[in-house]
Design goal:
alpha/beta; Rossmann fold; 2 domains; seven-stranded mixed β-sheet; five-stranded mixed β-sheet
Length: 369
């Protein structure tokens, strides 16, 4: 299929349709409203379910109900709307039904503004609701990648019976790029054995619930969830590396911040500064091991985020105390410029060179001439 010029939100919505989404429930909120608008047209055209709920609280519980029937279901929102869905998210996780959520992040805290940020990082990677669980979180940096990861989201949700987030900032939702949409998938007619589809000759009725009254019973269920999360960590980690083979300073960034960082890295390489980029594609699972391996030979890291410092804590946990981790962030919907990153890396590189020269000098102190 040929590429066409697509807006991010529209591309994500059409990708979901072509991936076999059977039911969409949502509530309009900028900067993701075009996604809902596209679904409002396409889903009825295909005889599928579209419903604009009266609130995000209603929408997440509709997703819960539809997912319990074993169908491909999703919602989309932006930061304040995702906050309202927290209880429902935890119920879905506790019931082990697959569901897909799209978070097109906007400025905060509070109602904030409609500008792009990455300030939901902690919210969606550190459980996205109460209790000991984590959703899979996919973070595209281009519209083509958003399309591909949207399709993947449904497959992962069903494979692990879990929540999958497609997490992007408002810039990716609003921008336009050439991209290729996937072919239309055939709708699934078989429902999973656990789904609430009626008895249909089964020897027992299915039941879906997130309540576990006994302490031992709930503890066992939590142990089981942790085992499943460990499998996800082992099998579903995704990341991209650029120029890390010989890097002496590595930038860590995702989404739009990573796009800007790529430009900065190319400029810095032209100045013979050995800088590289590691871009997490899965914000959870997070590439802890890969960063730890880099830290064995890379003396400095820089995290670039469109917030006041959230992913940096995961980076510091990964690399340990043996290397320095610095931060460059912009909040309120301001996107960092390549020039800002270049200036920051130049300063860090000069400091790294000074430290290295001092270490060499100390090594030769007292050595015979």
């Amino acid at each position: 299929m040929a590429k066409e010029l697509l807006k991010g939100n529209v591309a994500i919505a059409e990708a979901a349709v072509r991936a076999g989404c059977e039911a969409y429930f949502g509530y309009p909120i900028t900067p993701q409203t075009e996604l809902l608008e596209h679904m409002s047209k396409r889903m009825p055209e295909l005889g599928r379910v579209f419903l604009q709920a009266e609130s995000e609280v209603a929408a997440v519980n509709m997703v819960y109900g539809a997912a319990s029937a074993g169908i491909r279901t999703m919602t989309s929102s932006s930061s304040p709307g995702i906050s309202l869905m927290q209880e429902g998210l935890s119920y879905i996780a506790g019931s082990e039904v697959p569901a897909v959520f799209v978070d097109v992040m906007r400025g905060g805290p509070g109602l904030g503004n409609i500008q792009p940020t990455q300030s939901d990082y902690n919210q969606i990677t550190k459980t996205a609701g109460h209790g000991d669980y984590r959703p899979i979180v996919l973070a595209p940096s281009t519209i083509q990648e958003a399309i591909d990861l949207m399709v993947l989201s449904f497959d992962l949700a069903e494979k692990y019976r879990t929540i999958v987030f497609l997490a992007l900032d408002g810039a990716i939702g609003q921008m336009m790029e050439p991209a290729e949409l996937p072919p239309m998938q055939e709708m699934k007619t078989e429902r999973p054995s656990w789904a609430l589809t009626g008895k249909h000759g089964r020897t027992r009725k299915n039941a879906i619930s997130s309540i576990q009254m006994g302490a031992d019973l709930l503890a066992d269920f939590n142990d089981y969830l942790q085992e499943k999360l460990a499998k996800i960590e082992a099998n579903e980690l995704r990341y991209e590396e650029l120029y890390t083979e010989d890097a002496q300073l590595v930038i860590v960034a995702f989404g739009t911040a990573a796009r800007v960082a790529k430009t900065a890295v190319k400029h810095l390489r032209e100045e013979n500064i050995p800088v590289g980029l590691l871009r997490p594609i899965t914000l959870w699972p997070f590439p802890y091991h890969q960063l730890a391996q880099l830290a064995e030979r890379v003396p400095a890291f820089l995290t670039v985020e469109m917030n006041n410092g959230q992913m940096i804590h995961d980076v510091r946990e990964a690399v340990g105390r043996q290397v320095g981790v610095e931060f460059l962030g912009r909040s309120g919907g301001v996107i960092p410029l390549p020039e800002e990153i270049v200036a920051k890396v130049r300063t860090m590189w000069r400091q790294t060179e000074v430290v290295a020269q001092h270490a060499i000098a100390q090594h030769f102190v007292g050595q015979p001439i």
